[in-house]
Write the structure tokens for this entry.
Amino acid sequence: TISNLYSQSGWIQQNSGTNQNLYDIEFINDKTGWAVGDAGVVIKTTDGGMNWINIANPSPMLNPNLWSVAPVDSNIVYITSGKDLIIRTNNGGLNWSILNFCPNCNSAMTGVYFLNKDTGWFLGTNKVFRTYDGGITLDSFYAPWFTNFDIYFKDINNGIFCGSGRVFKSTDGGMNWYDTNVPTIGVFYEFRKLAVANNNVWVTGSGNPPVYRSTDFCETWEVTDTIRNTGIIGLGFIN
């Protein structure tokens, strides 16, 4: 039976305290982590996920979908949402500042990645914002794709982002991007999350794709076909 195909040993179910869909979860260590989702839900744990603290909706919008969270340390956390919203807390969620907001826009900020407390990138609809001062100043660059999801930089120059059927790469800090040509053969799978370990990168997603892997930081790709038909939204590797 299907239940015998996958081992459950070592996994302990955690109660998030919410019945809303959660779209991103990030930890800064083995104890402290954050998750965000529908209806403005922000939750935080300081005991490895055993208990979750609800943070009041930090968005200026009523019940927004919060797409991505990036905790830099125990105090500084960034969250993105629709209407190109970017918000930040400097005190662990007690107070929030709006760094960017476009109430009349139909676009969204769906991804965020920070190298340190000052240097980071925000991924949106046809755009990438870069900051060197913790989000106070945002440099805007054109991203050659419209449905984008996740972004990662391994250093100040070299970064990648994924979207529907595509992974793009930059070697100049996000100013310019080129298609890395994941061999999807014209099918637009939703690559929602990047998994990165050193120069190794993996993507997969909805729509029954295989897992695509690069060992040279997205210069070339190979296809693995080991876990199809699973509808994976996210994946991660530590090495």
In short: The longest strand covers residues 22-27. The CA atoms of residues 180 and 230 lie 25 Å apart. The chain has a mean pLDDT of 92. DSSP finds no helices and 22 strands in the chain.
